[in-house]
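We modelled each protein-ligand pair independently. The example shown here corresponds to the pyridoxal-5'-phosphate entry; the chain sequence is given first, followed by the ligand as SMILES.
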Amino acid sequence: MNKQKLLASLPSVDEILKSEKGLEWQKTYPRRYVLQAIREIINQHREAILQDKAVEASSETLYPDIHKRIEKLSAYSLKPVINATGVVIHTNLGRSVLSEKVMEHVRQIACGYSNLEYDIAKGKRGKRYTHVQRLLNEITGAEDSLIVNNNAAAVFVCLSALAKGREVIVSRGELVEIGGSFRIPDVMSSSGAILREVGTTNKTHLHDYECAINEETALLLKVHQSNFRMVGFTKSLSVEELVTLGGKYKIPVMFDLGSGCLIDLKSYGIHIEPMVQEIIRAGADIVTFSGDKLLGGPQGGVIVGKAEYIEKIAKNPLMRAVRVDKMTLAAFEATLMCYLDEDKAKDTIPTLNILLQDIGKIKTRAKKIALQLKKAIGSSHTDISKIDVIEDSSQSGGGALSEVEFRTYAVSIKPLHLSVNTLEERLRHSNPPIIARIKEEALIIDARTVRDNEIKALVRGIKAAII
Ligand SMILES: *Cc1c(COP(=O)(O)O)cnc(C)c1O
């Protein structure tokens, strides 16, 4: 057939739009994407005809390509991925995973009206923070509490409310950077508080703090060394010592804990992450921590402490700028409810569950993945790749438990006909994307963070990427 005839056989945009398929697409997808996809695919075919590469095209033959293009155009940008990195609290992959039970509460509250700021008993305006205050106070032992958008905001608003224009004493060993742009000295200066650093990088003594105290001192601040550890010739003050010092001079003590751990991890061999309850019991006036690190809840910053300071912080105008929404509050309430019985928390909170799961279970999962993978690839799998289950270590991530390595099992895949970097890249482009790590020329699928209901999709994705 000649080019003219082929070109004439191409359907028009309007024809496809008005076809049964076209009308169906317009019901399901945004019209502009349907239109764009039809135009693009028709153009592609026109180009192909002009370059002598195409055969006759009718509406029917174009439909599959158009449909694929529409789906691609109208896919959500934010999408689930399979976390095969083994990093449990992975900031880039959304930190904590919420349970179905928590999401059910969020769904109910978000999909309708609620008593977010309405006091049902009094029939008038209430406060949004009351919904989590009782739980937070019961669990942490604090007098009062607030929740803001994240821990960075919590630190910022506390400093601004309690120390604006006045001095805050911090040990030089605790002037940390948490990643992103959260650095204690920078947060301090933008809050309007004046940093008064004391001691040295490795050692800060009681007298260092005491010598720095003057009538301008508003706060003694302690910051948890979340993502690094100092060993050797070191000295820092305990919360108890700081509280005693603060008491002597009537200066409040604040502790930025970073990861809000609410259960005792010592029985799991983890001794370095302080519990919020311990810090409150030690007498800290204000404690701040994240909602989506070890606590395993939604993104948020929790402020707990003495009522007189919480009241002052609550009145600060910045509170409005860092205010949490109803979905966050609902997720917090449902998550905190799981902590009322500590032994239940580690089963019902996915982050704790993934972190503290039995090593035998991880091994079983790794074996299952390896077996299903070999099966899926078929008898030729030994020609294509070397697949083994290996023992390895994974990290908790999120700045929490930085130097604690958790024993884990992983599937190691050494592709024989393509580079491991190509395989890693192809997996990132799978649907759903699979995020894995590379170690010594092998692709490592850490079974710790792969959920059981993701194994099928994981195997399908790896098979498609490797064959
Ligand atoms: C993680 C962390 C922060 C920041 O918390 P976000 O919730 O990520 O804003 C602040 N301080 C410390 C010590 C941390 O570990």
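The chain has a mean pLDDT of 94.
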